[in-house]
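From the methods appendix. Each design record in this collection lists the tokenized structure first, followed by the designed amino acid sequence. Records were kept in a plain field format so they could be parsed without special tools. The example shown here is representative of the layout used throughout.

RECORD:
FOLD TOKENS (106 positions):
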């Protein structure tokens, strides 16, 4: 996700300038921070005995992830001038990479 974010930000910057680059970077950061939070909450416990707790924590982690995503986006849209197209395109592509990763790395 981090590498993809950097590449997309560079593409946005080349095609549309500094503000698009900045917008794409912020989108990637929003996505990566919320995904990292999901991972930390989900896998706080370890081992075979903790499997049931890990399964329960997935629901909690997903709720926190989306809440953080909404908060990050609100902060960006309220306080930072961005190009919305670059922001949302980067966010969607980085998020899809997260969904596609299990199929790519079997």
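DESIGN:
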């Amino acid at each position: 996700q981090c590498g993809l974010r950097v590449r997309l930000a560079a593409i946005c910057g080349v095609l549309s300038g500094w503000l698009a680059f900045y917008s794409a970077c912020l989108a990637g950061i929003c996505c990566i921070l919320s995904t990292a939070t999901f991972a930390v909450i989900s896998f706080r416990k370890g081992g075979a005995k903790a499997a049931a707790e890990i399964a329960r924590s997935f629901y909690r982690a997903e709720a926190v992830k989306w809440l953080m995503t909404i908060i990050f986006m609100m902060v960006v849209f309220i306080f930072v001038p961005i190009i919305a197209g670059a922001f949302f395109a980067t966010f969607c592509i980085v998020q899809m990479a997260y969904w596609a990763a299990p199929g790519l790395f079997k």
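APPENDIX NOTE: The radius of gyration is 16 Å.
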